[in-house]
Amino acid sequence: MSLQPSWQPRWQLFPATAFDEHAETWRTLNAATARTPLLAPEFVAPLLREFATSRTLLAICTAADGIVAMTVLAARGGGIWEVLQPSQAPLGLWLHRPDIPLEPLLAALTRRLPGVALLVGLTQRDPLLEARPPDSPTLRTLDYIRTAHVPVAGSFDDYWNARGKNLRSNLKKQRARLLKDGTVTRLQIDRLPEQMALAVADYGRLESAGWKAQLGTAIHPDNAQGRFYAAMLAGFAARGQAAVYRYWFDRQLVAMDLCIEGEGTLIVLKTTYDETVPPGLSPTLLMREEGCRRLFDEKQVVRLEFYGKVMEWHTRWTDEIRTMYHVNHYRWPLLRQLHAAAGGHATLLQRLRKRSVPAPARQPTPTME
């Protein structure tokens, strides 16, 4: 179905706590649209349990032939709403059918939200999953970060020989050094649900020994992100779609990756390493080399995704780099013009709302239909 001019999107609003009731509908829409494990219910449900608040809403849009869009939104204040975007989520929580234009959906959602919504932001969009829409009088896209992936095609030897000489030579020298020292390296991959809680605990201990512990951002089994990763990975493992990579120097755990799989993609969510490893050794890169060899040999996935800001080492690992983006939809064209002129700062919209927007009529609370 293509959107007809007479068709009006119908949005319903629910508290985020209602997500479990609509999880299978969300799964179906993800399968018909983005088709990414990062928007599977196994990822979204534990994310909401740990990071949603009482002001977080689940929004569902229907048409004559069914549901065409779903999202999870958080109010930022000042009439600004955004998709819920904890740092643990590489993608914003938004799905919509590709045959339905984005702008009418956002316009209807802006009118439906409580109070006077001035801006609705869709953060961290992936052009590989959803084409970047053109700007319009009420819609503006902004660059987010450049991210990288490795296509898993052909043989590992062909892939590896296409890498830079410095990378190949450096890792070869590291392996020779380890061999000379009598250090045995080992790659371990865990996939069972009952292994995930221990994996997150091990990851937390490794991460807590490094610089993240000083910032208070390290994973711990008892903090929100530790609970999220344990529950999320167990959910994916129950479907055969989780993979925890551990790398060992003899009996010393020196690096870990927390990964999920789906739709032919392996996604690296978190990486950490032992910062006490002697200088000149890169356990993460050694682990990545062996892991990539397995991916090319097993041919179970077609893409290895990093979903982080491109670092120098990414450019040695792959040439496939793309730019992710944000989408802002404004209630009125003037808001878009003023926001762009102010460099996109929310404070301008907040001031404008106080000065220029008439007091809204009393709004009903979100419907729980």
Describe it for me?
The chain has twelve helices and 13 strands. It has 369 residues and is an alpha+beta fold. The protein folds into two domains: 10-144 and 324-356, 3-Layer(aba) Sandwich (Aminopeptidase); 153-301, Gcn5-related N-acetyltransferase (GNAT) (Aminopeptidase). Strands 1, 2, 3, 4, 5, 6, 7, 8, 9, 10, 11, 12 and 13 form a 13-stranded mixed beta sheet that branches. Helix 2 packs antiparallel against helix 8 and helix 6 packs antiparallel against helix 8. The longest helix has 16 residues, at 165-180. Mean pLDDT is 90; it is low at 1-5 and 351-369.
**What name is given to the CATH topology of the largest domain?**
Aminopeptidase
CATH structural class of the largest domain = Alpha Beta
Low-confidence runs of at least 5 consecutive residues:
1-5, 351-369
Task: Write down how many β-strands occur, each being a DSSP E stretch of 2 or more residues.
Answer: 13
* Percent range for β-strand residues: 25-35%
What is the number of domains?
2
Terminal-residue CA separation: 24 Å
Gross morphology is elongated
* Major beta-sheet overview: 13 strands, mixed
Protein name: CelD/BcsL family acetyltransferase involved in cellulose biosynthesis
InterPro entries: Acyl_CoA_acyltransferase, BioF2-like_GNAT_dom
Domain BioF2-like acetyltransferase: 166-313
Pfam family, one: Acetyltransf_6
